[in-house]
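Checklist before submission:
- one chain only
- standard amino acids only
- sequence pasted in full

Submission:
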Amino acid sequence: AVNVGNEIFVYWSWHRIDDMNEVIRKIRHVRSNIQQPVTVSDDYNFWNKPESKKIAAELDFICLHGYAVWNQQLLSNAMEWTESTYRSIQAYHPDHTIAFCETGWPTSKVSTGNSDEARLVKARVGEDEQKIFFELYNRWVEENQVISFYFTSFDEKWKGGFDGVTPMKKMEKHWGLYFSDRTPKKAMR
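Returned file contents:
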């Protein structure tokens, strides 16, 4: 499949595109030049809006992003939230296959200061929590035959900026199932 955009419509995206017609032109251009299925990846909080129907009508399937931890969910409720989010988008776009293209659980976060993660993220994070999340998630994916991708293979030390007192602990750097040096975290052992 070919993805024509990543988090380009959700309200919080720093690279948000307001001109849906231009994106539709790009989707159609890509489609006319390839044989693979075409999609757009975005957060559930775009796919649950009326304007998402216009984009979905151009796609072969929908790539859904949804993170329980970023939505103030504790690990004990993470799968209930994840499944509910998936089901709500599936119901909103009943003629489309929904692939869960980004979800996961981080292994680090900044707990002090005024950053979004310090203020909003109440859940514990770490390798043990990530392992539990993926054990539950994998079971749900298999039982429900959900097309799914993990976010992400390797930690990405370059993401999330370098400001604050503990910049290397920022969540954006620690979603991988492997550390950036390619050694496995507990979820992969």
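Reviewer check: The first strand starts at residue 2 and ends at 6.
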